[in-house]
Amino acid sequence: MENKSEEKGITRRGFFQRILVGFGLIISAGATGAIASQLLKSLMPSGWFGEPYVYRKVYAAPITEINQVGASIIFEDKANNRKAILINNGGNIQAFSLVCTHLGCQVFWEKERGKFLCPCHTAVFAADGSVESGPPEKSLDQYPVEIKDGLVYISFREPTWQPEQYFRGEGL
Amino acid sequence: MIRNFLKERIGITPGELKDKIDEKVPTALAREFFFALGGIPMICFFIQFVTGLILGAYYMNYSGELANGLSATYISIRNITYEFPVLNYIRGVHQLGANIMIVSLFLHMLRVFFTESYRRPRELIWVCGMLLFFTTLGLGFTGYALVGDQLSYWATQVGTNIAAATPVIGPFIKRLMLGGTEINLYTMPRFFLLHVMILPLLVLTPLIMAHLLLAREHGISYTGRTEKSYYSLVPNHIFNEYKILWVLVFSFVAIVYFFPPTLGEPANPFLTPEHIKPEWYFFPMFHFLKLVPFQVGILSTMGIFAVMTLWPFIQTIMEMFIPLNVVRIIAFTCGTILMVVCMLFTVLEALV
């Protein structure tokens, strides 16, 4: 063959064939990657990096119920998956999430001791939400509280994406 | 006639097939129980497969409300457990089979570790075995999550939050498993898919095949005391395993007769029960997480798992620098300490 270059041991035809195969590989790898990432993304309804959170203001209780120092009310709205505790900490009304910051169990509010206890890994949180003992590293999530016309509102931090709404037909 | 028919169509007769897959098995396997423990998890897997097929025909993976404030999941399991005939036995055997599968895996691992059967050239058999072990634990976890009672719900919550603590990819894995940022309606179908399809068929089965083929390639390592003699795999050893299958099935059914499966309170996302516990085989990890800061616990558990999986290679590297006897003492000590600590944590957790 006249095109053969002896030193490299490769023909012109072979060279182009290799380039073609190389391009083919790159293109098919790209296509596979693109399709695979779309497939994976379709499995992540809440997005690659998690849904952004929004605050939703919800009426919780009249102020008269929580006026006294040390008083507490547990607010529960099962349909919308909302639960929080309102505590009057020395005249300052605060709302806490009852989800343990360790592994997501529900903490109990022990009124007599004025502490939160987590049954899963025996963590204890103080009335202001800070960690007293046990494995958690963060204090309990606190929700903003607003008092207006004698009514207490809690701003719940919620993911924007709620799968239940698709089952109720609201998301369509 | 049949022989000719098969020979002509598929190119092999049953006799030739037998000669092909037959191999010599050390007689010890039929006499010394500890050297034959590898077969039991596989028999259990077969039992799990059959009982799981039946349970799957009655299971519903919709965790939304179906009636009276109960989820479809919970109602389907309640019907399996209390309403339909025979099905409570099937569920009981499925539950017990999972436990016996893990017990026999533990014992098999201990035997292989303390007889050093993982040494060159059998390192990859050990690695496959460890992956099989983790997959089985994953099957246990996903199966537990499907029940839909309180313990199952909170085990899912805690388990996925543990997965979320994995560095870098943790939160992604959690959202992929849950189908959202929290447990929701898309969670159950995913756990169901993992439990009946992905883990058993796409992960466990290929791993079992690799484990068996590698074990066949290198032969079974026998380091016991009795003299070496052999018997044939087909039909003798297969028949032995078949006998074990029936012994297991009958004893499972007998145990389930006296200890039928039960079902707890329906899952309530607003109330964690006072005594929440995972299945017993997660006790060591569960107890360990109580004792140390969270990230330390997760990272060291993952480290221990990695060291366990790669132990044959680690030991080979150590042997380059340290005399063989010392390495053996180190391996023996590490294994014993890990085993004792795991047993201690299990007992401590069971007593709480």
What would your notes on this structure say?
The complex is a heterodimer of chains A (172) and B (352). Helix content of chain A is 20%, strand content 34%. Chain A contains two helices and eleven strands. In chain A, the strands form three sheets. Chain A has a four-stranded antiparallel beta sheet, with no helix packed on it. A four-stranded antiparallel beta sheet of chain A has the order 5-6-7-8, with no helix packed on it. Chain A folds into two domains: 1-50; 53-160, 3-layer Sandwich (Rieske Iron-sulfur Protein), CATH 2.102.10. The radius of gyration of chain A is 29 Å and the shape is elongated. Chain B is mostly helical and 352 residues long. Chain B has two domains: 2-278, Cytochrome Bc1 Complex, Chain C, CATH 1.20.810.10; 284-352. Chain B has helices at 2-10, 14-21, 28-31, 39-56, 72-83, 87-114, 123-145, 150-164, 170-178, 187-218, 233-258, 283-291, 294-309, 311-321, 324-351; strands at 24-26, 65-67, 70-71, 230-232. In chain B, a hairpin with a 2-residue loop joins strand 2 and strand 3 (70-71). In chain B, helix 6 (87-114) runs antiparallel to helix 7 (123-145). The longest helix of chain B has 32 residues, at 187-218. Chain B is globular, with a radius of gyration of 23 Å. Classes of the chains: A alpha+beta (172), B mainly alpha (352). The A-B interface holds A 40, 43-46, 48, 50-51, 76, 78, 81, 83, 102-108, 118-122, 134-137, 159, 161-164, 167 and B 64, 154, 157-158, 161-162, 171-172, 175-176, 179-182, 184-186, 269-276, 289-290, 292-295, 297.
